Each structure stands twice: as structure tokens, then as C-alpha cells.
Amino acid sequence: MFKSSSHLLRYVLVSLLAIQGLCSAIAVEKNQTLEGNSERDQGELAVRTSDEYTIIHKWDADGAATVIGSAAGVGLVIVGAVNAWIGYEGNKPDAQKICGKSSIISITDDGVGYKYYVYSYTTGSNCDSTQRAKTITNALSDAFDQLHSEGASAVCLDFDHHGTWHGVIGLATDSSGHDPQAACAGHHGGAKRSNAGFPELEANKVAKRKEIGLVKRTPISVSQEREMSGSTKFSPPNKSQAVIIGIADKIYQQSAAKSCDPVTGRLTDSDGVDYNYYYYASGRNCDTTAQLKTIVTALDDAWEDLGSISALCMTMRHGDGTWRGHLGISAMQSEYPAQKLC
């Protein structure tokens, strides 16, 4: 009798644990979106909150106006916006809660002329954000894919991370005739535009990629070799976002130019650690079909395991393509030169 009761109790406990695990999994799937690979936070797997965007104003292309490119064609715009927003973190917000803003920037991306304007604001007391470069590049990419499919030629977008931080970008193709700064003027801190010349659109929030018909893209795999350890270690990923987006920008531009030439540089993270890098590509034409967001995600994910490393070589591959990206990066350039790691 006691043996039978013990088996019954064990069965009930196992069943309850299984139900609890199922409910937890459903809750995660309903409320949050995994970005790339699972991330480790203090030894535990963590689910990151995805950025969402709201379309504040949008103008559809008419006449000779050129449509905003898809994410594959606006990588330089995306990296410019992310770099600006990261640069504003740590600032003290002004009286209007603005953390920082750019001038109007002219750029040609994938053969199309654009003008864009970015700023960030806060609904709290500081300008910091818990966002990562990969989450905001994914959200920007989703936004531009949607706008391209809808035939938009100019837009103002507001991004948030379910916190106090907001990043705003106004973007217009040159042929649209719109001013990207005017498109976003007066929108911050939850303000709503009342100017009849710029009609309000219903807030359009996108939290799940499948809602706008996007397909999952092939990730970049990263292998690590020649790991060196010394007195200066790599900072954690959340402190290295400016370095990650900076290197991703160089990789993206080299691919767009189909250049096999090496590039070098030096970047500093928010902990004050300096990194020297040396990058070159190999393979047919030395280019990859990987989008900027895929490159950023690969670097950001790889950075998770570098807390005990001072220098290393990363080799990147994208699916079955011939492209190989070789990145030597060193936080101790005198002892471990980046150009000798790969």
C-alpha cells in the first residue's frame, strides 16, 4: 500500500511540474520575442524584450518619388541611426526630455539618395536603455521591410524598448521632396502632432515578424580561434555595443563594395576599454547576402563568451555561401596585435 501511494505521489508531482513548465513556455511565447540565440545573464538563460516601432507619419510614393529600400538596401541608414542613439546614452535629458539629436544627414545607400534625422528622448529621468544593438537593428530592419512593401517614400518612426527610452528617425528619399526633420518635429515625450499638413496615422506597432510576412533568414555562424588572455579583458556585451555596431558597419560596407582588402580600426567601449581590429573577407567576390542585422546579431551573440578573453580571431560563415569573414580583435594590441590573430 505504501509503495503504491509513493508511486502515485511521484506521478502527481511529475505531472504538476510538466504543467508548470508548459504554462511558463506559453507565457514566454505570448509576451516576449527571442532575438537570435539564447543569451546568458549571470549564468542563467535570459529572454530579451524585443523593440517595437510606431509609425508616426508616413507618405506613400507618388509620381517620380522613389520608394524607401528594404532592409537589405538601407544598411548604412540603420547603422547611422543605431550609432547616434548609442552615442546619446549617458546624456542628461534637457527640459523637453530630449537626450540628443543629429543634423539632417544625406547619404546614398544601394544607389538611392536619402536624407535622415535621428534623436532620442526619455519619459523618465535618464537617457540610458537596456537595449542591445541587435534588438534595435532587427526592429529597424522590420520597419523598413514593411515600409518598402507598402510603397512609402518618407516616414517618421518611434522605437521603444518597453521602458523610458525612445529612439526617433525621420527618413525620406531625395525624390520624395520631404524634409525628414519636419516629419518628426513636435513628436517626443508622447506628444501628438496637430498640424493638419502632416496627418496623424493610427499607431502601428509590430512585435512579431510573421505579422508582416517576413521569413526567417539564415544566421551567421562564428568560430573562435587563437584566444589569448591577459590583464585586460573584453567588457560584457551590454558595455560593448558601440564596438559591435562599429565593426558590423565595416563588415557590411566591405561586403557591399565586394572588397577583399583588409580594414583596421580602433574602437572604445563604455567601460573605456580600447579594441584594435583587423578584418578581411575571402570567397567569391568577398561579399555576403547577410543583412546588417544578421552581422550585428552574430557579433553580439559571440561576445557573450568573451569575458575571460583579451584577444582572439573570429571566422564568420553565412550558410552555404563561399564568403568568410576573418576578424582579429584585441584589447591588448601591444601584446596581441589584431592583424596577427587570423
TrEMBL record:
InterPro entries linked to this entry: CSS2_C
Signal sequence coordinates: 1-25
Keywords assigned: Signal
Domain of life where this protein originates: Eukaryota
Keyword Signal included in the entry's annotation: yes
Entry keyword annotation includes Iron: no
Residue stretches making up the Secreted protein CSS2 C-terminal domain: 100-174, 214-333
The protein's name: Secreted protein CSS2 C-terminal domain-containing protein
Source species taxonomy: Eukaryota, Fungi, Dikarya, Ascomycota, Pezizomycotina
